[in-house]
């Protein structure tokens, strides 16, 4: 089930928008501050030069400081923006010697100016002013008192300059964002192109085309392409095995059906009821075998195509083994062989599997052993604990198989080079499927001097409803 | 003869104006609660055509034009009582100081935006006239000596002909006249030799008057032969009526003053006040100024006998308008003023002992 959770483009766009907005706010705040700082500095330096020019004009006459305010200083103060201007010369005790406007200079400011120049923003008759004060030592013939020069102007020009600087920054930023947006769109197109190419490639594919992908992908998509290739390969395999299985199954079913047909034809040509009876018996046997074959095919198909393993119960291998063997020992087919049970471990061995499946495995293995060994052979069934696994085995002292054939035996319809016997060749394949289904390992081992041992390793589980520590104490 | 027509109009208007104002004062059509008060250091008869034109354009505004001295106007602005709307004065530094103190209200209109930048400050105060400063002499002078054409000529005459000229020279008193003080300050800024001129004035015992009209009357009556730093606007009109008076635009440099107008911050009729200022600065107002008053129009492109453009064509690049900027504020600085007046007195009396 594929669920669509937003689009990549939208996600990128949202991220870009969020980032740009956040960054933009920070930048704007900074731009605002720096614009004001810059204009403040520019205009404060005007105040400073005006104060300097005025200080140049200070002279002492008798014991009085006299200052003929220079016209140039006033023009510097007014600036291009034609600010209203203020200037004053104060004695150190705050008495204005000369002032063009009745500004109150705070005593605190005067005290500060005594140490270093000071620039302050203040309000005077509803207008915002910037004042700058500075103390100058001036040598007179009689007194040597310092004087304070205060200058100031309205802040229209500062605001205008700051606004202009800020607007310029905002303009730059907006242009940058627009450019980044356009570039982002282009980048997204370029970056998502391989994705689009892959999509087109997959869409154009024939339904049964399982060949590996033939395309160029960027590093980031390598894994996706590999996974797709892997998926294709697995599908190809399973398809091939399915085809082989179907072909084999058809072939297997065809042989007994052909036998049935020829037997029935022969019987029909004869008028002797005794021959009919013989033919019917043969046909009955054959039908029985065919039916068994069909049920085996069915269970194999079922095992192969059950997708997810459902939650299965814990079963005790010992009891299942004991029951199955008792069942088989009583059967007609086992009468010619020596079917025995190895010594079972004293405690129950819990594995996670279905009892019917274990029975099916054992049944198949025992059936195989009975079928492919000469009468009188020994067949031993047993179970052992090996570490955290249970080992279930069926061994015989029959002719055994070659090492190379071991693997092939697990394929359906393989009979270890003994196609003459009447088995279906599905037994081990079913066992293998079941083993895979429950996470067990299946091993075939040839025995010396002769014989075959089929081993099945199943993971052990702690016993149900029992405290864990008992299990840990177990050897 | 060409110059006579505006003058005639002036005189005619002078008689009719009173009547017009009486009519307007009693008019029930008046849309404003109180009349528009214009406090002006500007002779009513000189500016009458302009006022009349304003009334024609704004019949709904009741105009109260009060002609006062520059000093009175300046004091009124600070006091704010009685309430006043528009302030007009030729005492440029004082006008500037009041504007700097925040007594003006900015006027934003097409007229103010269109106004030349050199003739306005902060869009609050506007120089709307262009009045050259001239020398004037009596014809008698030319019988005895070559009349002065430049400041240097004048200085030479004062030192070479001081016996003939004793008591016959007149100029502004810097102590009693704001315009006179401003002009001398500006003269001193342009040339250090200005002080030689002051010494010369003292040498011939120059008579100090407080307005141009008194100087012109003295010249006409024959009391004075030579006047220095007269308002050209008044002198030119006077010379047309009094052929014995010759007006000389100094050939080296000629100062120009501007009447400055602003709307008072606490104007009771701000809209009417703005309308008045806008009219002063409008093409129509300036056309009246150029055609019917001797105040000279500032606005380029205005046709008339009295325009800055025409003056420039005559005097070339020698016109030096007193700059309308913050440097004017220096002139009203008390310490600077005292220092200047002290020096003036000192230089004026330098030769007394001799």
TrEMBL record, chain A:
Report the catalytic activity.
ATP + protein L-histidine = ADP + protein N-phospho-L-histidine
Q: What's the domain of life for this entry?
A: Bacteria
Please report the stretch or stretches of sequence annotated as the Histidine kinase domain.
Answer: 248-462
CDD domains documented for this protein: HATPase (cd00075), HisKA (cd00082)
Q: What is its EC number?
A: 2.7.13.3
User: What residue stretches are annotated with the HAMP domain?
Assistant: 189-240
GO CC annotation terms, alphabetical: plasma membrane
The transmembrane residues are 12-29, 173-195
Q: Is Kinase given among the entry's keywords?
A: yes
Q: Which Gene3D superfamilies match?
A: 1.10.287.130, Histidine kinase-like ATPase, C-terminal domain
Entry keyword annotation includes Transmembrane: yes
Q: Name one Pfam family in it.
A: 2CSK_N
Going by the UniProt record, its keywords in alphabetical order are:
Kinase, Membrane, Phosphoprotein, Transferase, Transmembrane, Transmembrane helix, Two-component regulatory system
The chain's coiled-coil residues are none
Subcellular localization: Membrane
Under Gene Ontology molecular function, one entry of this record is: phosphorelay sensor kinase activity
Principal subcellular localisation of the protein: membrane
Quote the PANTHER family the UniProt record gives. Answer: SENSOR HISTIDINE KINASE YKOH, SENSOR PROTEIN QSEC
Protein name listed in UniProt? histidine kinase
């Amino acid at each position: 089930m594929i669920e669509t959770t937003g689009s990549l483009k939208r996600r990128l766009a949202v991220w870009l928008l969020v980032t740009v907005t956040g960054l933009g706010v920070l930048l704007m705040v900074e731009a605002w501050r720096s614009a004001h700082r810059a204009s403040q500095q520019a205009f404060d330096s005007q105040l400073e030069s005006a104060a300097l020019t005025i200080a140049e004009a200070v002279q002492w006459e008798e014991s009085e400081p006299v200052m003929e305010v220079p016209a140039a200083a006033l023009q510097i103060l007014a600036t291009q923006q034609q600010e209203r201007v203020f200037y004053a010369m104060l004695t150190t005790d705050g008495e204005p010697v000369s002032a063009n406007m009745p500004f109150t200079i705070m005593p605190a400011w005067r005290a500060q100016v005594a140490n270093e120049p000071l620039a302050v923003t203040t309000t005077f008759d509803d207008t915002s002013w910037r004042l700058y004060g500075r103390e100058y030592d001036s040598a007179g013939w009689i007194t040597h008192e310092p004087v304070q020069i205060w200058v100031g102007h309205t802040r229209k020009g500062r605001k205008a300059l700051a606004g202009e600087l800020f607007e310029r920054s905002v303009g730059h930023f907006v242009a940058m964002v627009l450019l980044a947006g356009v570039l982002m769109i282009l980048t997204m197109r370029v970056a998502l192109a391989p994705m689009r190419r892959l999509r087109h490639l997959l869409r154009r594919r024939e339904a049964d085309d399982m060949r590996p992908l033939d395309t160029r992908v960027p590093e980031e998509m390598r894994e996706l392409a590999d996974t797709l290739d892997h998926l294709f390969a697995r599908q190809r395999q399973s398809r091939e095995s399915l085809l082989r299985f179907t072909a084999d199954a058809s072939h297997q079913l065809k042989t007994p059906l052909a036998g049935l047909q020829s037997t029935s034809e022969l019987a029909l040509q004869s008028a002797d009821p005794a021959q009919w009876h013989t033919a019917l018996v043969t046909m009955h046997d054959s039908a029985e075998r065919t039916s068994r074959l069909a049920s085996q095919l069915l269970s194999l198909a079922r095992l192969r195509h059950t997708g997810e393993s459902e939650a299965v119960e814990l079963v005790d291998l010992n009891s299942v083994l004991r029951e199955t063997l008792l069942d088989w020992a009583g059967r007609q087919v086992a009468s010619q062989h020596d079917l025995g049970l190895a010594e079972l471990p004293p405690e129950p061995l819990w594995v996670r599997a279905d009892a019917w499946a274990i029975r099916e495995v054992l049944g198949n293995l025992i059936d195989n052993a009975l079928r492919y060994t000469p009468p009188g052979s020994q067949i031993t069934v047993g179970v052992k604990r090996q570490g955290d696994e249970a080992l279930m085995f069926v061994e015989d002292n029959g002719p055994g198989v070659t090492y190379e054939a071991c693997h092939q035996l697990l394929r359906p319809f393989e009979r270890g080079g003994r196609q003459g016997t009447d088995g279906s060749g599905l037994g081990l394949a079913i066992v293998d499927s079941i083993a895979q289904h429950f996470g067990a390992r299946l091993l075939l081992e040839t025995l010396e001097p002769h014989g075959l041992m089929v081993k099945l390793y199943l993971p052990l589980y702690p016993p149900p409803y029992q405290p864990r520590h008992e299990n840990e104490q177990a050897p | 003869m060409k110059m006579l027509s505006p003058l005639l109009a002036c005189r005619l208007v002078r008689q009719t104006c009173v009547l017009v104002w009486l009519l307007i004062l009693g008019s029930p059509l008046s849309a404003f609660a109180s009349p528009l008060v214009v406090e002006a250091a500007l002779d009513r008869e000189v500016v009458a055509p302009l006022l009349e034109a304003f009334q024609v354009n704004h019949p709904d505004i009741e105009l109260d034009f009060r002609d006062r001295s520059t000093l009175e106007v300046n004091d009124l602005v600070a006091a704010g009582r009685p309430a006043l709307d528009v302030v007009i004065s030729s005492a440029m530094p004082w006008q500037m100081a009041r504007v700097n103190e925040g007594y003006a209200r900015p006027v934003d209109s097409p007229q103010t935006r269109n106004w030349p930048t050199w003739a306005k400050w902060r869009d609050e105060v506007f120089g709307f006239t262009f009045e050259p400063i001239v020398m004037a002499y009596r014809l008698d002078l030319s019988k005895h000596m070559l009349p002065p054409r430049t400041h240097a000529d004048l200085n030479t005459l004062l030192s070479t002909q001081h016996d003939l000229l004793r008591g016959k020279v007149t100029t502004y008193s810097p102590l009693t006249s704001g315009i006179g003080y401003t002009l001398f300050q500006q003269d001193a800024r342009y040339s250090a030799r200005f002080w030689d001129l002051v010494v010369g004035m003292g040498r011939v015992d120059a008579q100090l008057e407080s307005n141009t009209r008194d100087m012109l009357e003295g010249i006409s009556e024959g009391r004075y032969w030579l006047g220095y730093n007269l308002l050209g606007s008044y002198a030119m009109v006077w010379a047309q009526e009094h052929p014995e008076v010759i007006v000389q635009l100094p050939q080296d440099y000629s100062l120009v003053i501007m009447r400055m107008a602003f709307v008072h911050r606490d104007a009771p009729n701000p809209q009417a006040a703005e309308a008045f200022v806008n009219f002063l600065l409008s093409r129509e107002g300036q056309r009246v100024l150029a055609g019917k008053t001797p105040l000279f129009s500032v606005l380029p492109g205005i046709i008339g006998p009295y325009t800055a453009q025409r003056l420039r064509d005559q005097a070339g690049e020698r016109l030096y308008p007193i700059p309308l900027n913050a440097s004017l504020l220096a002139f009203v600085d008390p310490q600077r003023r005292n220092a200047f007046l002290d020096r003036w007195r000192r230089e004026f009396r330098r030769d007394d002992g001799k």
